[in-house]
Specification:
- The structure holds 3 protein chains of 3 kinds.
- Chain A is α+β, with helices and mostly antiparallel strands.
- In chain A, 39% of the residues lie in helices and 19% in strands.
- Chain A contains 15 helices and 17 strands.
- Chain A starts with a strand and ends with a helix.
- The longest helix of chain B has 15 residues, at 24-38.
- Chain B contains 3 helices and 3 strands.
- The model of chain B has no long low-confidence stretch (mean pLDDT 92).
- Chain B has a domain at 5-42.
- Chain B has helices at 5-14, 24-38, 73-77; strands spanning 62-63, 83-84, 87-91.
- By secondary structure, chain C is α/β, with parallel strands linked by helices.
- Chain C has an 11-stranded mixed β-sheet, sandwiched between helices.
- In chain C, helix 4 (105-112) links the parallel strand 2 and strand 3.
- Chain C starts with 8 loop residues before the first helix and ends in a 12-residue tail after the last helix.
- At the A-C interface, loops of A face helix 9 and helix 10 of C.
- Strand 10 of chain A pairs antiparallel with strand 3 of chain B, so a sheet runs across the interface.
């Protein structure tokens, strides 16, 4: 559902387009041999090329091109075998060349599609306009020195993919779903780590409003938002701001606005962008980027299964519910973990355990998948023990919690504590008889027609057997005895 | 096409070159003389001519994705007019 | 011992190998010449200590039989090539104090072959000029004077310091760079040989950029043989330059066979400009006769778009320069003029740091790329450029090399063409077309003007066929037998 803002003069529809900047996963920068790792000491990952020393020249990193093509393929997009690097000219302290090498008229990837997952299994297709490669800028630090801005060029020249969507989204939720899905795909592909905290992924958000069915309204762009939550908040604020202006008979000025996450508002950066004229032209230091179909096909052959395909397979081949499948494929690591657990086991039971107890315990212990003390094999053992009736589901949950806390294996805990499920009918019958003998009034009530007391007896038997009695067998034996 | 004073001032600002107000007129004249002379390019038929993209008839080359450079902070900032603890320093930018 | 500064590189190489003199003696002789020629202002930075160290190292290597092809040869380096640990200025105030932490590929290649650096040669600021009058470090003076007066003359540009140092026997050779004629025109003005190889033959890495699609390093020497020796040492594939060509460097000296029988030499009719000076026209005809006598076949050819080369060049080169020079912003190196804020600092730094001509070209280039004008100027110029390149391609189906004058006049006096930039730009009328097409070209001294100044003839070749150009130039050189030398008035 699109977001509709009800104004005094009628309804307004929100239209959103996103330009996501995703840092290409690569060892070296786009045009130089310096490292890209996050968090290094200032200006230590800077070559003379990155610092734009006189006479320095760019030479393109093959891996960055491969990653862009791979991403394009993942977005079912047109790959352009001929593309051109242009210079985007402007002055800024952290832009050492005085221009950013980017792709303007002829990007490496053309139109594609991204399917976003909404509530209740609803999906929508969002158009991808293009993807191009460009250099990142350095970092300006304004608050470390009383009178100076400090410049660190470690990021300068790092390869970015700018992924531009069509203005196809209609609500903050859709924008959020778009970013999440894009991030998921990039991580599946291994072309971007998607780490928004470290700035590996950030979005420029274009927002406009219109009467439903009208032409597109004038848009405002909010630059460099680095969390899904802020993207949503910025859209809500900005859409309402625009509606307020229009309702009062004003017009929207096309401009760049800054989203202030502390104040939760957007404000004009008009003063900053006076007369921007980027003077794009083909970079004479770089020949056009050309490759043949074989280059693309080799990358295609190497493409991993992507979340949509994986989800379909989980549903159709493994019998998992669409909801669970969606949860399992959202993160590649989770999907991989699940597939390890489910290998040779009951897929549905495995899915329940991963999405249920496993996630729950991760949360309880403050862990993530990466720091989980439980391996897929260890969880698999639990599933096996439940499946073959060695322990009951309830016992299994306790065992599992203990596994999280101690790191011990399921079988070790079961053995140690003697938790093995009792399926010996003789022993269970003894336990049932004891419970019946101890509760004559309840028995009378039951026999008087209070059927619900079956549960009470069941619980007592389980309690007295320390939960180890096989519930199926208890159930089977208990009723005839109660009924007399 | 002819540049007026205001356009020259705008271009100078784009190029971040400080030009004194009194020099704008003479600069405009010089630039107009050059641009007027360049207008003769309009005589050339360039229908269906692709702009030159590379001088030599050759293919681009690429580098392997290996870390082969960087790691010399001191050399990078050695020539800086102003630096602070390994950073370049510029007049404070108020965002 | 005879004056070692009068030797050619080839002679010095043989003399060193035969131990007739040492590299230290050779360098010392040139340092003496340098000291007596300060009035020519050929150098921005003299590197005498480095020269002596280099010569000492060369003597060692000569003694061990490990001599390179330029071993012990003292040369001047145009101050556009970055040299590690030595001030590099591009003759601009804006690079004040800039001392690179790296060495350009071209100079590194020369040092690897044993060449000895005497100093960094003066030039037009950022190589923008044709008279060496735009240097922040002052004009370079041409060693030649007219027989009719004592007026100081320009050495041409932009490689003016390189040209003067070689013509005045201060250096045995010099590196130059040629964007629109910056090697060939000053070579013609100073009576020496100047060669711009094919674009992509020499690496551009570490050379201060003017216009990336045109800039190409080359040689300035006193003979064609010296050009062959030096070019071979400089050239070569460089993986650090994406436009450098991965191609074997031929033995250029071996191309000097002296035999051009059957060679087809093109004479482009469009180069016969209206109002071309009688002297230049005569010299050109003389060149035709010389080549004909040597057995070449002369073919009249047409390069129809010649006329449009200069205006196209004066859009393309400034456009690229406006972007290439954006990095000079007072942040990471060179001059900084403090201002009220970052933008003010930029504008003051660049306003004071760049000279008039550089500012003019940055402004033209900025305008030509700006919104609304890109198609009319830059794109149009690049299309015209494609047509010019096509002209040459067609011509080279008919001929092997092309003979033209190098410049429309001999050297002129300072200030003579200072007022009108357009008049100055016309100096490059014969050199610019080949630059736009990326072709190799050489200027060789071929005669004297009526008032005693050297005049040059230019030979152009097919892409990466420097060998034919060098071979033909060798024949022309022998026929012209240009032995005139300027008087050494500057030693007074």
């Amino acid at each position: 559902m699109g977001m509709i803002i009800q104004g005094a003069t009628g309804d307004w529809e929100v239209v959103i387009g996103l330009e996501v900047h995703a840092q290409v996963s690569s060892n070296a920068k786009l045009f130089s041999g310096s490292a890209t790792e996050y968090g290094a000491e200032q200006n230590t990952q800077v070559s003379f090329v990155d610092a734009a020393m006189p006479g320095m020249l760019p030479v393109i990193n093959r891996a960055a091109v491969e990653q862009a093509v791979k991403t394009g393929l993942g977005l079912k997009a047109k790959i352009n075998n001929f593309s051109v690097f242009d210079r985007k000219n402007y002055f800024y302290a952290d832009l050492p060349q005085g221009y950013q090498i980017s792709q303007f008229l002829q990007p490496i990837v053309g139109e594609g599609i991204l399917t976003i997952d909404l509530k209740d299994g609803v999906t929508r297709e969002i158009g991808i306009t293009r993807l191009h490669l460009e250099q990142d800028a350095g970092k300006s630090i304004h608050d470390q020195h009383p009178s100076m801005t400090l410049v660190d060029l470690n990021r300068s020249g790092v390869a970015l993919m700018e992924i531009v969507s069509e203005p196809d989204m209609r609500s903050p939720e859709e924008a959020a779903a778009y970013v999440k899905k894009l991030r998921s795909i990039l991580r599946y592909l291994g072309t971007c780590d998607g780490n928004m905290d470290e700035g590996s992924m950030r979005a420029d958000v274009n927002v406009s409003v219109r009467r439903p069915g009208d032409e597109l309204g004038t848009r405002c762009e909010m630059k460099n938002i680095n969390s899904v939550r802020f993207i949503q908040a910025a859209i809500v604020y900005e859409a309402n701001r625009q509606v307020d202006i229009l309702e009062e008979g004003g017009t929207i000025a096309q401009e760049t606005r800054l989203y202030d996450s502390v104040k939760g508002e957007t404000r004009s950066m008009r003063s900053k962008e006076e007369a921007h004229d980027y003077r794009y032209f083909p970079d004479p230091d770089l020949l056009p980027l050309e490759f043949d179909d074989a280059f693309v096909n080799a990358i295609k052959a190497d493409l991993p299964e992507l979340p949509d395909a994986k989800k379909d397979r989980f549903i159709s081949e493994m019998g998992i519910s669409p909801y669970d499948a969606g949860v399992l494929v959202a993160e590649k690591e989770v999907a991989d973990f699940f597939e390890l657990v489910a290998k040779g086991r009951d897929a549905k039971l495995s899915a329940n355990w991963v999405t249920g107890e496993f996630f729950g315990n991760l949360k309880r212990t403050g862990n993530t998948l990466a720091t989980s003390p439980i391996s897929a094999d260890a969880l698999g053992e639990v599933v096996d023990l439940v499946k073959d009736g060695t322990i009951s589901n309830r016992i299994a949950k306790e065992v599992f919690e203990e596994m999280f806390d101690t790191g011990k294996s399921a079988s070790a805990i079961v053995d140690e504590k003697g938790l093995k499920q009792v399926s010996d009918t003789g022993a269970i019958e003894v336990a049932i008889d004891e419970v019946i003998a101890a509760n004559p009034e309840k028995l009378a009530e039951y026999r008087g027609g209070k059927d619900k007391l079956l549960g009470f007896f069941m619980g007592q038997v389980m309690k007295n057997t320390g939960g180890k009695a096989n519930p199926g067998i208890v159930n089977k034996l208990l009723k005839p005895k109660l009924d007399g | 096409m002819s540049l007026d004073k205001a356009t020259v001032a705008k271009v100078a600002n784009l190029a971040r070159i400080r030009v004194e107000e009194k020099d704008l007129d003479s600069l405009a004249n010089e630039l107009n003389a050059i641009l007027g002379w360049v207008e003769q390019l309009g005589e050339v038929d360039t229908e269906n001519v692709a702009p030159m993209t590379s001088v030599a008839d050759m293919q681009h080359r690429w580098r392997a994705d290996e870390i082969t450079d960087g790691g010399y902070q001191q050399d990078v900032i050695a020539n800086a007019p102003s630096d602070e603890e390994g950073f370049f320093a510029v007049p404070k930018v108020i965002e | 011992m005879s004056d070692l500064t009068k030797l050619t590189i080839a002679e010095a190489r043989d003399g060193l190998k035969a131990s007739k003199f040492s590299a230290r003696e050779l360098t010392a002789a040139h340092i003496t010449a340098m000291e007596s020629a300060k009035g020519l202002n050929a150098f921005i930075t003299e590197t005498l200590e480095k020269a002596v160290e280099g010569a000492t190292r060369s003597d060692d290597r000569l003694a061990k039989g490990e001599a390179g092809n330029m071993e012990g040869i003292p040369i001047a380096v145009k101050d556009l090539f970055c040299t590690k640990g030595t001030l590099t200025t591009a003759a601009s105030h804006i690079l004040d104090g800039f001392t690179p932490e790296y060495e350009s590929t071209v100079t590194a290649n020369l040092w690897a072959e044993g060449a000895v650096m005497l100093g960094k040669a003066n030039l037009d600021e950022f190589a923008m000029g044709s008279s060496n009058e735009t240097s922040y470090y002052g004009n370079v003076v041409n060693p030649w004077r007219r027989t009719t007066d004592d007026q100081p003359l320009v050495p041409g540009g932009s490689s003016g310091g390189s040209a003067t140092s070689v013509a005045a026997n201060i250096a045995m050779g010099a590196t130059g760079t040629d964007t629109g004629g910056s090697i060939r025109q000053p070579a013609a003005f100073t009576g020496i040989v100047g060669m711009k190889p094919t674009y992509g033959r020499c690496s551009r890495w570490g050379t201060v950029a003017f216009a990336s699609s045109l800039d190409q390093a080359g040689t300035m020497t006193r003979t064609v043989r010296d050009t062959a020796i030096m070019l071979e040492a400089m050239a070569g594939f460089d993986p650090k330059d994406g436009t450098s060509v991965d191609m074997e460097v031929p033995n250029f000296e071996a191309a000097l066979t002296g035999d051009i029988r059957g060679l087809k030499v093109g004479i482009p009719k469009e180069y016969r400009l209206d109002g071309m000076s009688e002297e230049i026209a005569t010299l050109w005809e003389q060149g035709v006769d010389w080549l004909k006598s040597a057995g070449a076949e002369i073919v009249e050819i047409s390069l129809p778009h010649t006329k449009y080369a200069l205006p196209a060049y004066y859009i393309i080169a400034p456009a690229e320069a406006s972007s290439n020079l954006a990095r000079y912003d007072g942040v990471r190196y060179g001059l900084r003029v403090e201002g009220e804020n970052l933008d003010d600092m930029y504008s003051r730094t660049r306003g004071e740091g760049f000279g008039e001509e550089v500012q003019r070209r940055i402004m033209i280039g900025t305008y030509a790329l700006s919104a609304g004008y890109y198609d009319a100027y830059y794109l149009k110029a690049q299309k015209v450029r494609a047509r010019i390149a096509e002209d040459f391609k067609e011509a080279y189906k008919l001929v092997d090399t092309i003979l033209t004058p190098t410049a429309p006049s001999a050297a002129f006096a300072f200030g003579e063409k200072g007022d009108d930039p357009l008049e100055m730009y016309l100096n490059d009328v014969f050199t610019v077309p080949a630059s736009l097409a990326g072709l190799p070209g050489i200027s060789i001294p071929a005669g004297l003007s009526s008032d005693g100044l050297p005049l040059g003839l230019q030979l152009l070749g097919r892409p990466f066929d420097e060998e034919t150009v060098i071979r033909t130039a060798g024949v022309l050189e022998e026929a012209a037998n240009f032995t005139a030398k300027p008087t050494t008035w500057w030693r007074a």
